[in-house]
Write a structure and sequence with these properties.
Blueprint: E1 6-9, E2 17-21, H1 41-44, H2 54-65, E3 69-72, E4 94-95, E5 98-99, H3 108-130, E6 137-144, E7 158-161, H4 169-177, E8 184-186, H5 198-204, E9 210-216, H6 223-244
Parallel strand pairs: 2-3, 2-6, 6-9, 7-8
Antiparallel strand pairs: 1-3, 4-5, 7-9
Helix pairs in contact: 2-6, 4-6
Length: about 250
């Protein structure tokens, strides 16, 4: 089977939404150190290699919103598509206390090779999908670990991230905070904006409405949990988008 650095689903779906998943997979292409970063299977199954559960939520949400979805097909440790090309963390050598052996001595030539082979094709496809209609709304799905090594547990069930554009994010936060069983993070557990990241590149700079949703990965471990979160979020997203008039 021919390797592809991304997958697109439902390209002909008509909704304004474009659902993206930058960290969908922990795939290491054969061209990268023979398909092995030198990490254990346990480490490759952790949040350092990808966003566990995010792909399932993305696919279910896209189907429920009748929208296309694009998912990366390479580990964030190969090259991180949610970083700018000039970001020093685009090729990570140490993450959450774990050294990445195959990246330890990767220099500028290897970084450029990975950008050209994996990162740029993914972003080119995302740009094409985002431009399919003038009023595209970018919905970026991520997950995060409940606890980084040596840190306190994170209390939030879901985080809504935004940078310079909070037109959709702020109303969504208020709406989710009305749910009695949810602990909602506003630009938590991460800050909402990095220059050159996916949302910046495909939404903020072109002026498209956008929001990034982070779900705690222990809440989306199973197919049923992923589907349940999508089923919960889809009508809320539609409701909030409609209410904003964007």
């Amino acid at each position: 089977m021919t390797y592809l650095p991304f997958h697109v689903f439902g390209e002909d779906r008509p909704a304004r939404w474009l659902v993206t998943c930058d960290h969908a997979a922990n795939t290491v292409p054969q061209e990268v150190n023979g398909g092995d970063l030198g990490l254990s299977p346990e480490d490759m199954a952790r949040h350092i290699a990808f966003d566990p559960g995010a792909a399932g939520v993305t696919l279910a949400l896209a189907e429920m919103l009748n929208a296309p979805a694009i998912l990366s097909n390479f580990s964030r440790l190969v090259i991180d598509p949610n970083r700018g090309e000039d970001d020093p963390t685009v090729l990570m050598k140490l993450y959450d206390g774990t050294i990445i052996p195959a990246n330890r001595h990767a220099g500028p030539e290897e970084r450029e090779r990975r950008l050209e082979a994996y990162y740029r094709p993914y972003h080119k496809a995302q740009a094409r999908l985002a431009a399919r209609q003038q009023d595209t709304v970018l919905l970026s799905i991520h997950s995060y670990t409940r606890q980084l090594r040596g840190r306190q547990p994170r209390p939030w069930h879901v985080g809504i991230l935004y940078g310079r554009d909070d037109r959709l994010a702020k109303p969504l936060i208020r709406r989710l905070e009305a749910e009695p069983d949810l602990c909602v993070g506003e630009n938590e557990p991460y800050g909402g904006h990095l220059d050159g990241d996916s949302v910046d590149r495909h939404a903020i700079k072109p002026g498209r409405a956008n929001v990034l949703i982070e779900i705690r990965n222990d809440l989306i471990e199973t197919d049923a949990q992923q589907y349940a979160w999508a089923r919960r979020l889809a009508p809320i997203l539609e409701e909030v988008l409609d209410a904003t008039g964007l």
